[in-house]
């Protein structure tokens, strides 16, 4: 009788299987299950980086700024917007880190709602989001209203409707929760916030490149996210920020810098912002740091976000099947949604003492992610993870919890 947990049929039916060979192998790693935290490097990135240093930077020198580098933040922003964010051109820019862009966008948002004194977020939002919002509130005399959410789920439209009011300037959540993988109902939440007269800022760090996003269709106002998770841009790769087109004329970048000027080479006194989303830039674009990201976006364009999402759903469903069969009988709990329409790209498993298993797991070549208290995040990346790899990693975990 066939083994229902055999990974071979899943891999045989995987239309994205060939992409696995286009990532750099990691010697000694049996299962890399942390793609939701740091994506694997595309194999072509090394040659592309060397070529950039040797040819683009090495031979063109400062002339490169006039040959494409200067406009790279907008061009690459449009690329990400079209491939992963459901954003029409002219609304997305690549720059800074997620934290810096969240600060810029949130500060700009509350400035667009004078007289309102509350920001709404949730207890399950990522720490940097909460820190940014608290800092803005402290500096401007605002109040942050935190909605308490279920750690195994996430924010709901009903909770948002009960929290927003005429005092709300900004509503800000993560589209995919970093702990549980919960996918928020972004269209409904955005509509509720707008009905209250508030603006909405979405953190897409755990969505981009894994879960389809439709910023324009949602009517989203602002969004930001990183590129080093499912977009495989590399550690510390620059983030992206989105501003809805009809807000661009009024939004003000709180971190003014010469790259965001209307005439950066005029060197004049007084600041006049650039037209369009470029006004959200501050300092020199991180050109070199975008090279691996460009390679990864080429793969995403080839695969298509729809196929990526379908494989992600299959991988997380398989992870849940393995967890139920192998781990739940040994006291492990699933702290993620069971509904595939509400589950993003990772599954969180909990059991007291999981922190002590990280050493043995790493020694066995299995690399998940850990988030206290007692949570292992299993984050298979659709383009680089096979079902056999997921099976092998959770098999090692089974032997440790059964031990």
Cα distance spanning the termini: 28 Å
CATH topology of the largest domain, anyone? Aspartate Aminotransferase, domain 2
What is the helix content? 25-40%
Count of structural domains? 2
Shape annotation: globular
Order of helices and strands: HEHHEHEHEHEHEHEEHHEEHEEEH
Q: What percentage of the residues does DSSP assign to strands (E)? A: 5-15%
Q: Report the top-level CATH class of the largest domain.
A: Alpha Beta
Instruction: Report the biggest beta sheet as strand number plus sense, adding barrel if it closes.
Output: 7 strands, mixed
Which class do the helix and strand fractions yield? alpha/beta
Order of adjacent strands in the largest pleated sheet: 2-8-7-6-5-3-4
* CATH architecture group name of the largest domain: 3-Layer(aba) Sandwich
Domain Aminotransferase class V: 96-322
Pfam families: Aminotran_5 (PF00266)
EC number: 3.7.1.3
Function: Catalyzes the cleavage of L-kynurenine (L-Kyn) and L-3-hydroxykynurenine (L-3OHKyn) into anthranilic acid (AA) and 3-hydroxyanthranilic acid (3-OHAA), respectively.
Give the secondary structure arrangement, pairings included.
Elements: H1 8-12, E1 31-32, H2 44-60, H3 72-85, E2 92-95, H4 98-111, E3 118-122, H5 127-140, E4 143-147, H6 157-163, E5 168-174, H7 186-195, E6 199-203, H8 215-218, E7 222-225, E8 239-243, H9 291-303, H10 305-327, E9 333-334, E10 347-350, H11 358-363, E11 366-367, E12 369-371, E13 375-378, H12 387-402
Parallel strand pairs: 1-11, 3-4, 3-5, 5-6, 6-7
Antiparallel strand pairs: 2-8, 7-8, 9-10, 10-13, 12-13
Helix pairs in contact: 2-9, 3-9, 4-5, 10-12
